[in-house]
Sequence to fold (131 residues):
Amino acid sequence: MLTLSVPPEAARAKWVFVEFYVDVSAREAQDASDQTPLLDVFALKDKDGYSGSLDPSQFEPLSLPMARPVAVGQDRRVVIDVTEIVRKRATEPTSICALLIGSLTGPRSGLFAIKPDRLDQPGVARLTFFD
Fold:
């Protein structure tokens, strides 16, 4: 799970992207594996709301799950549009955006390990704002 602080000026951003790096491996399924598993990103209602299972009541209802295919390998850069959820969080008192990152089970599932210290700043992810 990524927990990101959102500044108030994010409410006026035209686009907001989250960037992070992952190591990716494919899950074996019936003697086959997909070499570009899907990385799913779900916005949580709050940073303490994840109970360890995929309960839809924990997810932000106005934010669609986002998914990106990511090739199997090390140090894969992932950039995902999170404009909708970040704008919403920027107008709330908590200003925290919690994103659950992983892969649902299925034919395109994979294992993703977020890489710490890969960016040129502290933390494991970076928000970039465009006006």
Observations:
- Residues 63 and 84 are 7 Å apart (CA to CA).
